[in-house]
Design a protein that fits this description.
Length: 212
């Protein structure tokens, strides 16, 4: 793999991600860059800055009852709730309560919510918080789950997204394809790097990557 480089948010220089070029794979996708967002998910100060930026689209005009987090983004989600609840002119959620919840995934790949969590999202306004979106496929599955529980999805927030919307819902992201213009993702059966005979450098998931 090639040397990593840093991409800094144009809106907030305190927010940055490490990008590692290479051939990365899961069972469902191959990528030519791995976007390391560990610090944003685990550092309280950086996560707070990320949440502050992500809160902007919701502050004055979106009622939020719950944030459904995925991919280990619970720290960002908690700070996002804190930002949405702060007192301030035009802050619509101040004085309310926002729950931070996540679904579980069954063996067949379907998302469900535990009984104790369901009452927090049924007929409630929900923001979906994810780490990274390439195709929006996972977000679509989560949205189907939320629809089953009659949750009202009022927004999607992401650290990085290569797409601008999913199932007609706009994605509010800290970093986009414009920030990493050479980023590409492929279906494993049509991966350009595989066709070129380039070996897989590492396998990855939401926790990180492991070199082969």
């Amino acid at each position: 793999m090639e040397k990593s480089f840093t991409v800094t948010s144009l809106n907030n220089p305190k927010i940055a991600v490490q990008v590692v070029p290479g051939h990365f794979a899961t069972r469902s996708a191959h990528r030519n860059h791995y976007i390391d967002i560990f610090d944003l998910k685990s550092s309280s100060s950086v996560a707070r800055e990320a949440a502050r930026q992500l809160s902007i689209p919701y502050l004055s005009n979106v009622i939020v009852d719950a944030i459904v987090y995925m991919d280990g983004t619970e720290v960002i989600a908690a700070y996002l709730a804190d930002e949405l609840l702060k007192a301030g002119a035009g802050v619509i959620n101040q004085g309310s309560e926002i729950f931070i919840v996540t679904p579980m995934i069954r063996a067949d790949g379907l998302f469900i919510f535990h009984q104790s969590v369901q009452e927090k999202i049924i007929n409630k306004n929900v923001v979906l918080m994810v780490a990274s979106m390439s195709t929006g496929a996972t977000a679509t599955r989560v949205m189907e789950c939320l629809s089953y529980y009659r949750a009202n999805l009022v927004g999607i927030s992401s650290v990085f997204s290569a797409v601008t919307e999913s199932s007609g819902q706009k994605i509010h992201s800290l970093f986009t394809h414009d920030d990493i213009p050479y980023y590409h993702f492929y279906d494993p059966s049509t991966c350009a790097m595989c066709r070129e005979g380039r070996k897989i450098d590492a396998v990855f998931n939401s926790e990180g990557y492991t070199e082969l």
